[in-house]
Design brief:
385 residues, alpha/beta, de novo design (two linked rop proteins), 15 helices, globular
């Protein structure tokens, strides 16, 4: 079933803008964005639909106003109120940055987003630690959210992002739900993600188990983590990362794919290149995004590089309990992609859940009703670990 409501497709005829807006809307259940503010941004954008600078300017303008309000509240000692404004500002800056090509302007907007996220999270969620995860000769930035009230070693979920998300989103929509169920969360920007890409210039890699092992060894070294009950989860393009990690780093006790990626990533990127050249408003992906994430020169080299991003030969090596969730109306990867992943996984204990439009959570990574999706995942982890 295809959903036609403007709430889902905020900019009819422009899937690039609509998808990015829906990703931001998906943070609403946790008070991390406000739908009224997003609607105001959307009205401004509709009036400037042909302006190439409109996207980042309108999202940044709203973010800047909220940041000023947050600064004033913080100066007056109203820190909980300031925290709310900072977190919303961080999400809007990050959404605006999405369409800006790599360069000084993009990094400048991202630094504003990160400043607001840090200021907001430390005020609203004092149980979140900012940590660095040792990784080769560098480190991966992450948040560790400890389960409130845990008096002993607790089960833990390591959450990697997708191609265009960040640990600040993950620690809120996943970390908060896991914490309520007694789980710690390590929300991490892996290679090619968030802060690791933007400020540390760490690009993605096909052998993502290197990052997965680094994350496991970090959490296993902590005195508040039960090293025998650590799950790995990722979403969107992370639908490749998490299974790849579980296939090669078998100390993880469970694996969750929160919205699958295309089973044949190479073929999907060939199609996206065609759309970027012929009808760019019909794709979610900017022309610069994949080469930037991979650290290569152009889309041609990126498409050649992703030939190595395949689970076809290693999914059978996954033996831990495995869950893949997906939306029936996902327009970035199909339910058939999720079913191919599910069929290829070697685990005897494996589950697939395809959410329908009637249930909610039917769009990509459940952004139309992410609460439904993450509750399902949290309940499954609770029953599994």
């Amino acid at each position: 079933m295809t959903t036609q409501g403007n709430w889902i497709d905020h900019f009819p005829g422009n899937f690039t803008w609509s998808n990015a807006t829906l990703v931001c809307k998906g943070m609403a259940p946790w008070g991390a964005v406000a739908l009224e503010e997003i609607d105001r941004i959307g009205e401004q954008l509709k009036a400037r639909a042909s302006d190439p600078d409109a996207w980042w300017q309108e999202w940044s303008a709203m973010a800047g106003r909220l940041e000023q309000t947050a600064d004033a509240a913080a100066a007056e000692g109203r820190h909980l109120t300031a925290g709310n404004y900072y977190i919303r500002a961080g999400n809007y800056y990050f959404t605006g940055e999405r369409m800006v090509p790599p360069g000084e302007q993009k990094i400048g907007i991202y630094r504003k987003a990160l400043r607001c996220f840090h200021a907001g999270l430390e005020r609203r969620y004092p149980n979140i630690e900012r940590v660095d995860v040792p990784y080769e000769s560098a480190a991966l930035p992450a948040y560790f959210m400890k389960a409130p009230g845990a008096s002993a070693r607790a089960p833990t979920v390591v959450v990697f992002d997708g191609l265009d998300n960040c640990k600040e989103m993950s620690v809120i929509f996943a970390g908060l739900e896991f914490a309520r169920r007694g789980f710690n969360t390590l929300a991490i920007d892996g290679p090619g993600q968030g802060e690791a890409l933007r400020l540390r210039k760490i690009h993605s890699r096909y052998d993502y188990e290197v990052a997965g092992t680094a994350a496991y060894e970090y959490v296993a070294s902590r005195p508040d983590v039960d090293a025998k009950r650590v799950a790995v989860m990722a979403y969107s393009f992370g639908g490749y990362y998490a299974p790849r990690i579980a296939a090669f780093e078998q100390r993880y006790a469970a694996c969750v794919v929160f919205g699958a990626v295309a089973w044949d990533i190479h073929a999907k990127q060939l199609e996206r290149r065609r759309l970027l050249e012929t009808d760019p408003k019909t794709t979610s992906q900017s022309p610069f995004q994949l080469p930037w994430v991979l650290g290569v020169r152009d889309m041609d080299e990126a498409i050649e590089t992703v030939k190595r991003f395949t689970l076809a030969d290693c999914a059978k090596q996954i033996t831990c309990p495995f869950l893949v969730t997906h939306g029936a109306n996902d327009r970035l990867a199909t339910p058939a992609d999720a079913e191919k992943l599910y069929a290829a996984v070697g685990s005897k204990n494996k589950t697939i859940k395809i959410f329908t439009a009637e249930e909610g959570a039917a769009e990509h990574c459940h952004v139309d009703n992410r609460q439904v999706g993450i509750d399902y995942v949290a309940d499954w982890i609770t029953a599994t670990l």
